[in-house]
Amino acid sequence: MALQKTLYEFLGISNRGNSNKFFKNEFVFTNNFIPDHLIGRKKEIDAIAKYLKNVENTNKHMLIFGKTGTGKTVVVRWVMNNFGDGNIIYKDKEKIIYKIGDKKGIVIYLSCRQYPTRYRVVNKIAQIISESDKKTQNWSKEIERIRAYSKLLDFMIIILDEIDYVDDKDNLLISTFSRWGEIEENTICSLVLISNKIHFLQELERRAFSSFQCLQLPFYPYNAEELQQILEHRAKLGIKDGVLDDEVIPYISAIVSRESGDARQGIGILKLAVEIAGIEDADKVVKRHVDIAKSYGNLSVLFGETITSLPYHERNTLKAIALLYLENNNMITTGDVYKKYKELVGAAVTQRRIADYISDLTMLDIISAKEVSRGRYGRTRIIDLKYPPEMILEILKDEI
Ligand SMILES: Nc1ncnc2c1ncn2[C@@H]1O[C@H](COP(=O)(O)OP(=O)(O)O)[C@@H](O)[C@H]1O
Ligand SMILES: [Mg+2]
Questions:
Q1: Which is higher by pLDDT, 228 or 371?
Q2: pLDDT in the model for residue 7
Q3: Distance (Å, rounded) from C-alpha 237 to C-alpha 128?
Q4: CA 365/CA 347 separation, integer angstroms
Q5: pLDDT in tens, 159-183
Q6: Which of 101, 148, 200, 329 could be disulfide-bonded to 195 (CB atoms 3.0-4.6 Å)?
Q7: Which pTM value belongs to this model?
Q8: Would you say 7 and 322 are in contact if contact means Cβ atoms under 8 Å apart?
Q9: Is residue 40 in contact with ligand 1, taking CB distance under 6 Å?
Q10: Concatenated DSSP letters for 118-130?
Q11: What structural domains does the chain harbor?
């Protein structure tokens, strides 16, 4: 298969084995997995749980901030999963409806990466609170819907994860909810904003929004010891016994703590090192596999910056090409890309435009396109990827 060849050539390893042979549960390496216990975040867990409980005090909002991979998302989701205070009326991963004393309220969680415009955020909040999939396509109507439901409640806590993804330059989103009580006097509305930016508050001020009164909860990068515990826990759940050389986890933890303290990076390197050892048909995962995984990771970060900053159509064109590779198609023509693109985006573009996007990607050296003659059918371009399609799809996974 074209894809496999590309990836292995890229990693400089020979393909003899099976990338999955060392795993017992790959799910634990994904972002959707929430461990039953978290390492080194007791203080943060307690602060968030207390916040959800002390609804009388929640006229102050909360800001959770810290670099990526410091556990912000997993801690909040863990607290929601394990929330047992008060009288719980309903609970799922998007919301908890509960009573504290005689006050009834709701906690709503949403990740703005999935809802990157203000309209989509309020629409999603309205959908969650009203339990209906309706879309009005209108900001004010969505706010009215939320108001109608919030009147039935004493408090409403809205957790907006990855708030940095929302385009809210004039602060309409944040100000609407942070000043909810000015209109809806009987409902306390609290925002919990989660940001990867260390200077989020300063940025709000720069955007002329300085009235955001909040409790601040910083998340700091993990040190080597914490990373080691996180990785050991994950390895126990996801990797078969006796597969990892003893040096592997301390080695990854040392590299990652020096570089970023990002648990996601550590987990990613561990998983890839195990896959590479599987592909090589090695007996064990050793430091060398970690080194290969690390250099692949470095490249993927650099390359990721290039391709996530491509315009929308070029990103989709590239995604179409990567998908064609995965479908075992090793003679990809402009016509194939055109068909796949339409399937993906559903938009009316011409084949001519797709050919332009392909030229742009060629110029950036992400793909190559070789003109070949097809006899009486004229000339066509055969497209080849210069990077592994898995890497491309992984980078574009949340982007399009
Ligand atoms: N304290 C922890 N204990 C166990 N796993 C953790 C911990 N912190 C982070 N992780 C894991 O690291 C990855 C990144 O964490 P995440 O919460 O998504 O970071 P952030 O939201 O700060 O970018 C996830 O897979 C998560 O499960
Ligand atoms: Mg997060």
A1: 228
A2: 65
A3: 33
A4: 26
A5: 999 999 998 888 999 999 998 888 8
A6: 200
A7: 0.83
A8: no
A9: yes
A10: HHHHHHHHHHHHH
A11: 2-28+223-307 (1.10.8.60), 42-218 (3.40.50.300), 310-396 (1.10.10.10)
